[in-house]
Amino acid sequence: MKKPGRSSWVANTQHVQPDGKIRRSQLITTFGPGAMVDLVGDAVVIGGLDFWQGDGMEVLAESRLCASINARRRQQGLRELRTEAAFRAAPVGDDQQARRGHGIRAVEFPAWFVCQNPECRALVQAWHGLERKGDHYLHTCDNRRSGAVCVPVRFVAACVRGHLQEFPWLRFAHQERAGGRCEHPRLILEEGASGDFADIWVRCRGCGSKRPLSKARARGTAGGCDGERPWLGSEGNEPGCEEMLSLVVRTASDAYFSLVESALSIPPMKELALRAAIDAVWNMVQTATPASIGPFRTIPDVRHALEGWSDAEVLAAIAARRAGTPVQQGPVRTAEFGQFMAAAEEVPGTIAPAGQEFFARMLRRDGALPAGIERVVLASKLREVRAQVGFTRLMPVSSDLQGEYKVVPAALGLQTDWLPATEVRGEGIFVRLDEEAVRAWEKRDEVREREGELRAGFARWAEQMKEPPEFPGVRFYLLHSLAHLLMTALSLECGYAASAIRERLYCSLPGDPMPMAGILLATGSSGTDGTLGGLVDQGRQLLGHLRAAWDAGVLCSNDPVCGHHTPRGDLTGRLLEGAACHGCLFVAECSCERFNQYLDRALVVPTLGCDPAAAFFRERP
Asked: What is the C-alpha separation between 611 and 621, in angstroms, rounded?
């Protein structure tokens, strides 16, 4: 494996304690392949999937998610996932018997270190004059007999395609020197008390050249990208990148944006269930004809597998199987929305069968639902598989309304045909808005005017993107804002913290064959059998929670500043939200699908400074 300095084992490494520990669920989000991580004495990059080793890499089956991802990978010219083992959980570590070969390899990065002696502050590479002692590197300074501790430099260089490399310190320090780089460079990094880039200087003791790091913030100052991908090993470089490098702080939020797609494990649709039944007895029925299908059904295994299916349905499925025609499962979230809509009405005393991964029942209509709400579905058992499909740097990428990413992300591995994933089991409440009420609301002049303001802000934001997503529509802003208000209200009663509740939005664009306007608010835990209950029961008191959400949204602690904000002509960079801030709509980012973007409470409740006719809930429920 390519390494600037030495290699490390993270979170699971014969009789050698690992250099660090990471939760398995974090290995598909914050600390996935290619992410930079600070250890006690080192800074490393998490290795690619080719360097994940161990017997504990559990296979997580989810055919719908696999089919969805493979469809795009074919279009992008990427290697398809192996259907039977497309998703795997990270290897499990054992602190008591840690050993090499069971864990995740990480490579030391960056290789540049800064001496912590205030009178030295030398900026040197690990293999140039540094001594390794324990968990630290030591630098022999001019004014000291013993070595001084060195720490990794905070700055590296990256491009928007995800490539990562050392910042060109020598070239940058001497860029304004008439004779170019000096023959005997000795760099130091001087940092002021403020920590601002203008207060950080790179100086060469050999020739006296110096430059502030603020000059490295301009695009292109660090030079062109060399296409380096240290997390993929010595064969991982991708020469020919045409992007320019940017200065990146290793621990900054823009250094790594994980792209995660997910799917709920729902019962297979009718066509898929029939195909699975035929696959189980294929050796016996593959030659079936209209004349022979009857005798075939007398075979016990065939009779059991095809029970409930007509001869015409079976013969059509066999013909499709012979032709190699795949079963079209449809978009991931559309299928989930249809499953919630098909949920039977609850029967008192009924509990979810043991071993079932999805169990949802529609709330009985004994009492009237709040105006604008069409139905409430209580999901007491949910299983969600989340898989990381890649990552980006510098600029985040938005998914479409199905939760899919259309861009080609940075690679997680070179030779692997699987993706890192985790499964979350829990419970949730599904709320569907009245479709007729939503359509009538969308036609209001006040709503269209507000949509124009939001679209103008989105257009300005999209100018910065190479491949901007489609405007999600005013319906999405409504659903997203309502979800945040309800999450906050629910957390006060259900026993779970607000950060433990997560949204899943079901929204359609005008003209879609299946109109969707639904919200799933769920809680769950990875690596467990489920949750302790408490959230589902709150669905029976939805009216009370909706009233609490309405009260919280009408007046924000930051009004009138918050209520008067509009993305049209905004100079602060808040181009994807209307009336929204930390005082009203923003929640923990682990709870939000969109990084607290695409929010506007003026579309949900009457808001100070906005036309109340634009609110979906104009009156208190």
From this structure: 19
pLDDT at 530: 59
Last residue of a domain, one of 253, 281, 302: 253
Is 40 exposed, middle or buried, given 0-12, 13-18 or 19+ CB atoms closer than 10 A? exposed
Can you state the angle between helices 311-323 and 270-280, rounded to 10 degrees? Answer: 80
Cα separation, 131 vs 584, in Å, equals: 53
Whether the per-residue pLDDT at 9 is higher than 60: the answer is: no
Mean pLDDT of the chain: 86
Q: Are 434 and 560 contained in the same domain?
A: yes
pLDDT of 2 reads: 34
> Domain check: are 314 and 349 in the same one?
no
Mark whether 562 and 444 lie in a shared domain. yes
Question: Is the per-residue pLDDT at 612 higher than 90?
Answer: yes
Same structural domain for residues 229 and 307? no
Domain end, chosen from 323, 349, 365, is at 323
Asked if residue 285 and residue 188 are part of one domain, the reply reads no
Q: What residues make up the domain containing 309? A: 270-323
Specify the pTM. 0.84
The verdict on 316 and 338 lying in the same domain is no
**pLDDT tier for residue 5 given thresholds of 50, 70 and 90:** very low
Domain assignment of residue 543, yes or no = yes
CA distance linking residue 600 with residue 603, whole number of Å: 6
What's the domain count of the chain? 3
Q: Is the peptide bond before 353 cis (omega within 30 degrees of 0)?
A: no
Q: Per 3-state DSSP, what percentage of the chain is helix, strand, and coil (rounded to 5)?
A: 25, 20, 50
Residue 327 pLDDT > 70: no
Q: What per-residue string of b and e applies to 456-495 under the rule 16 or more CB within 10 Å gives b?
A: bbbeebbeeeeeebeebbbbbbbbbbbbbbbbbbbbeebb
Length of the chain (residues): 621
Question: What pLDDT, on a 0 to 100 scale, did the predictor assign at position 224?
Answer: 87
With a cut of 50, say whether residue 350 has pLDDT above it.
yes
In tens, the pLDDT along 578-588 reads: 999 999 999 99
